[in-house]
Amino acid sequence: MILEDGLRQPYDLGRATHHRLTVLALLSGHWDPYSIQLLKELRNSEQDILDRGFQIIAVSPDNTYRLRGILDRLDLPFVLCSDTGLKVARSLGLVRPMPAEKEKALRNSGIRFRDSDKEPAPQMADPSLVLLGEDGKVYLRVTGLIEKVPFNAEALTKACGQVRVKSALNQK
Known about the structure:
- By secondary structure, the chain is of the alpha+beta class.
- The protein is built from six helices and nine strands.
């Protein structure tokens, strides 16, 4: 799946995660305080995650212009990609119906909340973390982050260690 990074460069998500342990962060967008908080928490936990052999990739439905603003404001050390069509979140089943008033307020954001005009209700990505093994499998999904489930850096780094072992066993 080809996305764009914050510098408007093509970013091949499949290639980036191929045979790489990955913490994939899915965001609702620049307007969502939980998504921004998740990025800050990941930034602060980055070294512990890297020490476990994982890379961090964040995916937002924002356009690349908005991503630049997030990158500049938060000084993120990891890749932040644009996925205005919610392809990644949809492929992982991590979308939920969006309230009509929210869609109306965000109409000019550049995010496509409907997969097609035939889709009955707009959808949005849940702020989520997905841990991918070297084998490309999803080993852990945590949705509703910050809002429903407090971010816990220690639990995340512990889960990274467990996924690393499981993934390595599945490779053999």
